[in-house]
Design a protein that fits this description.
2 domains, N-(1-d-carboxylethyl)-l-norvaline Dehydrogenase, domain 2, elongated, 9 helices, five-stranded mixed beta sheet
Amino acid sequence: MDLLIIATPDEAIEPVARAVTPSDEAVVVHLAGSLGAAALAPHPRRATIHPLVSLAPTSGPHGSHLKGAWFAVSGDPLAWQVVSDMDGRPIAVTDEARAWYHAAAVIASNHLVALLGQVERVAARAGVPFEAYLDLVQGTIDNVAALGPADALTGPVARGDWATVRRHLAALPADERTAYRALADQAARLVPCR
């Protein structure tokens, strides 16, 4: 059975899908996280496979990153077989849920990187090396994995110590306050869950 994978930027998937003419038996697949199989029209056999992994542009060959990874899959059964053949862990994600799925992926990866960029900037102002915070980050991730987000939450918001939050906001440069406030608000959403 033939498999045609369209591995282009998201905005190019539909025009490329319209431009290619594989055999009618071929399964046409794209790798985008937020688009459904409809982007592959007019092909009768279509599927989506999105690896839920961080593939940084400078991290070298990515084959080892994909073994055992989670994949969002929809469409033709061949897509499920491809993931299985890579020792992947498939997750069924419908076309209707793909924007939610991909938004969660962006928050989990891209926004985490942006947050750590903020840690690096604020730590530099305190004269503390960024690397000193990486063990804290890893411990936090381990706690979330073991306990879930609500039970892993520590710090001033978890304690209801809004005076410390205000002290942090007063100390931070103006261009760092919006993100701090937004994340303190998100942390506060976890507190009633305890």
